[in-house]
Amino acid sequence: MPATVSLDPAQLAARIKQWGLELGFQQIGISDTDLHQAEQHLQKWLQQDYQGEMNYMAAHGLKRSRPALLQEGTRSIISVRMDYLAESPAASHRVLDDPAAAFVSRYALGRDYHKVLRNRLQKLADQIATAIGPFGYRAFVDSAPVLEKAIAEKAGLGWIGKHSNLINRRAGSWFFLGEIYTDLELPADQTASNHCGDCRACLDICPTQAIVGPYQVDARRCVSYLTVELHGPIPEQFRPLLGNRIYGCDDCQLVCPWNRFAKLSAEADFRPRQRLDQATLLDLFAWDETEFLQKTEGSAIRRIGHQRWLRNIATALGNGRPAPEVLHALNRRLQDASDLVAEHVRWALRRLTGA
């Protein structure tokens, strides 16, 4: 049953936004539940098999695009934005330009964002309940079949750019999203308008040309998919294109002109851990599984496991220079490598030595 709200809906929405800002979110918007256009886009994307091995994108039927099927009674969606950029884009470029350095997507340098945002969303829900009494809700942070970017666009937080990320005119795209599905009837904000114009910088910069057209990303070609979502071997045609990117890819964001307005995050949880913003490939390739689990505790990186971590780094080493210490590290790792890691180590050795 919907909660009985004594506050005027507009007043409650304004308070929710203020409470959200006080909790550390940079922006809060409200959307209705009509995601018809996004549903059509998703179905077309799935029909083209762009999801690759991400079977979960189709596994939940229409729950992803019809919120009330996922959370019964949902009438409004509170969408939040939290900025995460912990260093200047120039620092990212320096890492990408150094073949011995390990590039980790900036969102994964700090604490797992799922935990940070989920905690704040729960506090926001608790604050609402304190003000109005019990109400129906469910919070999400990339943890269920939710079209978070389409929802955020409808809630006025930004528009979905040609690279499929959400862009805000005043904040760029370096931010996380979270949602609260609720049975409260709240006034929806105005849908954000698109400001990509004729720009195609993200399409042109993509290392693997995964952005096959404006607003169309073939995940099977995407570096983030290949290094994070893919469980098996990285297809050989893509390995040289990965460069030194071992977990995700930020190229399309680094080149986006709207990111000149992005601000560094004040969140301590998003500051780099384990010096991942400065680590070399050899440093990280030396981690055994115990060390990997210890050093990625509380990090989004842990989800790929030690074997895919080594797979990615071996590929990156193969794209670097044939220094003696690199060849030694690859040969030493080969002695006890799994089949998955061994395949990429051998590829790297062949690439570096020509043997």
Describe the structure in your own words:
By secondary structure, the protein is of the alpha+beta class. The chain has a domain at 9-86 and 109-182. 37% of the residues lie in helices and 11% in strands. It has 14 helices and 10 strands. The chain has helices spanning 9-22, 36-47, 67-70, 89-96, 113-132, 148-154, 201-205, 223-229, 251-254, 281-285, 289-295, 305-318, 324-334, 339-353, and strands spanning 27-31, 76-83, 103-104, 137-140, 159-160, 166-167, 175-182, 211-213, 216-217, 245-247. The strands form 4 sheets. A 4-stranded antiparallel beta sheet has the order 1-2-7-4, with helices on both faces. A two-stranded parallel ribbon has the order 3-10. β5 (159-160) and β6 form a beta hairpin. α13 runs antiparallel to α14. The longest helix has 20 residues, at 113-132. The chain is elongated, with a radius of gyration of 22 Å. The N and C termini lie far apart (69 Å). Residues 1-5 have low confidence and may be disordered. It catalyses: epoxyqueuosine(34) in tRNA + AH2 = queuosine(34) in tRNA + A + H2O. Cob(II)alamin binds at residues 64, 142, 166, 177, 224, 249-250. [4Fe-4S] cluster 2 binds at residues 206, 222, 249, 252.
Map the helices and strands.
Blueprint: H1 9-22, E1 27-31, H2 36-47, H3 67-70, E2 76-83, H4 89-96, E3 103-104, H5 113-132, E4 137-140, H6 148-154, E5 159-160, E6 166-167, E7 175-182, H7 201-205, E8 211-213, E9 216-217, H8 223-229, E10 245-247, H9 251-254, H10 281-285, H11 289-295, H12 305-318, H13 324-334, H14 339-353
Parallel strand pairs: 3-10
Antiparallel strand pairs: 1-2, 2-7, 4-7, 5-6, 8-9
Helix pairs in contact: 12-14, 13-14
